[in-house]
């Protein structure tokens, strides 16, 4: 560990954060700003690209103003919400459409056509991903199909496509650098994760010109330097880009094959480290790139759950049965059990392990005795059951038994959920001392490239547990509850 700081941008679905992190992995200062969500039609979700960039620039200035006197900032790192799709004009940097967010389902029809055309196995074989609106490729095709003249402009090299990392990098460098990293490229449905290149066959199928795609570089890499834009100083090295879930895997110190983490957010991403050997999945997981470091890429298994934390937001904002999601833990714990009530939050279909785009949410087991506490508890339990489904599949696919789960993200602070998660998995669940693990993971990558940290072993040694939750549930009860959950899910499925 050396002296200096890393400036980490963590651009998420509901807000942006900028953190100043020192060589002991401590957060020295922090700034946060929410971003507006747009819902122009049912199932559609959009963001304003310029609002994201200008918001991040303001946060950077706020944190820079609080940098300790004499402190040296070694580099800037970026981690981001993945799959969210942006297009902008190469000559001016002007966005040509709102950002289509990963949650957006507008490209369901495109996915159905591709599946009906027999392309699903081809996309999975090359990208490791199922054909689903979650990923960037069909979102980008939708934009090119809908905006008159855009595809022709893209073919002439006048248009850029990128995920949030590329958009921020472009703006931070004053339009000089157009690039992404392995982790973000692997979420597009366009990148062959085994050949490590944009796939010409898939681009042809979707009608996407290669000229609009960014260069793909290692996650830890000197991408360029900041320009004097938005009140920022010029010359600050930008030394890491990485998607938020992969950044959390790195920040959790999951460097050995079989180590697994769950990031509980709006949705939940479970990711298992698979090492440098390419992996494939045939049972509902995504095979993906974890990161690129020096001359090596790491692979991972990922289980994507569309709706977890968003379930509790719906109970608060949609049904109005809870005022503060933070109170859900105490409310759920007041009940001795769930009384047979299950909530399947298939609000936008179900992702891993089902990948059913048409599944819809249901609540089962309602009686006259059912109260608000039952629904709140069912919402929390649904998160844990979905995680169990993915963990079971990861063990089957990898052949590695899961000995423990590292948990991060907002819902990792929910005591009831963490205990129930340990019970339903029958393995310990550990919450790290550092809560901002995605930002920390990106900072570690930048720090490795600039000498702030020297090795993965040094980084792994920084990881500390804040609290561990141990299984307390009888096996018969655990399997009965999980079986009843699976019965409820079966009622929601359409395929």
TrEMBL record:
Pathway of action: Polyol metabolism; glycerol degradation via glycerol kinase pathway; sn-glycerol 3-phosphate from glycerol: step 1/1
SUPFAM superfamilies the UniProt entry points to: Actin-like ATPase domain (SSF53067)
Binding site for glycerol: 82-83, 134, 244
A Pfam family per the record: FGGY_N
EC number: 2.7.1.30
Residues involved in ATP binding: 13-14, 266, 309, 313, 410
Domain Carbohydrate kinase FGGY C-terminal: 262-447
Carbohydrate kinase FGGY N-terminal domain span: 6-251
Annotated binding of ADP, by residue: 13, 17, 266, 309, 410, 414
Keywords from the named record: ATP-binding, Glycerol metabolism, Kinase, Nucleotide-binding, Transferase
One GO CC annotation: cytosol
Catalytic activity: glycerol + ATP = sn-glycerol 3-phosphate + ADP + H(+)
GO BP annotations listed: glycerol catabolic process; glycerol-3-phosphate metabolic process
One MF annotation (Gene Ontology) recorded for this entry: glycerol kinase activity
Residues where sn-glycerol 3-phosphate binds: 13, 82-83, 134, 244
Coiled-coil spans in chain: none
Superkingdom of origin: Bacteria
Regulation: Activated by phosphorylation and inhibited by fructose 1,6-bisphosphate (FBP).
The protein's assembly and partners: Homotetramer and homodimer (in equilibrium).
Similarity comment: Belongs to the FGGY kinase family.
Function, in words: Key enzyme in the regulation of glycerol uptake and metabolism. Catalyzes the phosphorylation of glycerol to yield sn-glycerol 3-phosphate.
Name this protein carries in UniProt: Glycerol kinase
Organism in which the protein naturally occurs: Hydrogenispora ethanolica
């Amino acid at each position: 560990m050396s002296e200096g700081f890393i400036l980490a941008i963590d651009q998420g679905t509901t807000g942006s954060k900028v953190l100043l992190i020192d060589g002991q992995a401590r957060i020295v200062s922090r700034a946060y700003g929410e971003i507006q969500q747009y819902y122009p039609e049912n199932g559609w979700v959009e963001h304003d690209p310029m609002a994201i960039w200008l918001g991040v620039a303001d946060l950077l200035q706020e944190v820079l103003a609080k940098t300790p006197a004499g402190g040296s900032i070694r580099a800037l790192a970026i981690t981001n919400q993945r799959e969210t799709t942006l297009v902008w004009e190469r000559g001016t940097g002007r966005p040509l459409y709102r950002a289509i967010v990963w949650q957006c389902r507008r490209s369901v029809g495109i996915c159905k056509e591709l599946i009906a055309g027999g392309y699903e196995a081809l996309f999975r074989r090359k990208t490791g991903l199922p054909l689903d609106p979650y990923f960037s490729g069909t979102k980008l095709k939708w934009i090119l199909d809908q905006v008159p003249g855009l595809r022709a402009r893209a073919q002439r090299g006048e248009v850029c496509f990128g995920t949030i990392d590329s958009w921020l990098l472009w703006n931070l460098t004053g339009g000089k650098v157009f690039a992404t990293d392995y982790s973000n490229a692997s979420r597009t449905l366009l990148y062959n994760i085994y050949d490590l290149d944009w796939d010409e066959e898939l681009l042809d199928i979707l009608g996407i010109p290669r000229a609009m795609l960014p260069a793909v570089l290692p996650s830890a890499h000197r991408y360029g330097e900041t320009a004097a834009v938005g009140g920022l100083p010029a010359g600050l090295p930008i030394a890491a880009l990485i998607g938020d879930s992969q950044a959390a895997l790195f920040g959790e110190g999951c460097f050995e094959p079989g180590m697994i983490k769950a990031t509980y957010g709006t949705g939940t991403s479970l990711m298992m480290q698979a090492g440098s050997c390419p992996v494939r999945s045939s049972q509902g997981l995504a095979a993906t790139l974890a990161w690129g470091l020096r001359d090596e890429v790491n692979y991972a298994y990922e289980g994507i759950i569309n709706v977890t934390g968003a379930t509790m937001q719906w109970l608060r904002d949609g049904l109005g049965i809870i005022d503060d999601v933070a109170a859900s833990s105490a409310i759920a714990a007041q009940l001795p059990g769930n009384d047979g009530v299950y909530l399947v939050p298939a609000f936008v279909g179900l992702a891993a392990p089902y990948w059913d785009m048409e599944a819809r949410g249901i609540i089962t087991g309602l009686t006259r005795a059912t109260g608000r506490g039952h629904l709140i508890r069912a919402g929390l339990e649904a998160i844990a059951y979905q995680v169990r489904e993915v963990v079971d599949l990861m063990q089957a696919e990898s052949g590695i038994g899961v000995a423990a789960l590292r948990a991060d993200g907002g819902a990792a602070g929910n005591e009831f959920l963490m205990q129930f998660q340990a019970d339903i998995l029958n393995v310990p669940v550990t919450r790290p001392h550092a809560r901002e693990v995605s930002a920390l993971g990106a900072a570690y990558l930048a720090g490795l490239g600039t000498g702030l940290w020297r090795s993965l072993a040094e980084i792994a040694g920084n990881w500390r547990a804040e609290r561990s939750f141990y299984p307390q549930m009888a096996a018969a009860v655990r399997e009965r509850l999980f079986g009843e959950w699976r019965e409820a899910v079966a009622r929601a499925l359409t395929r």
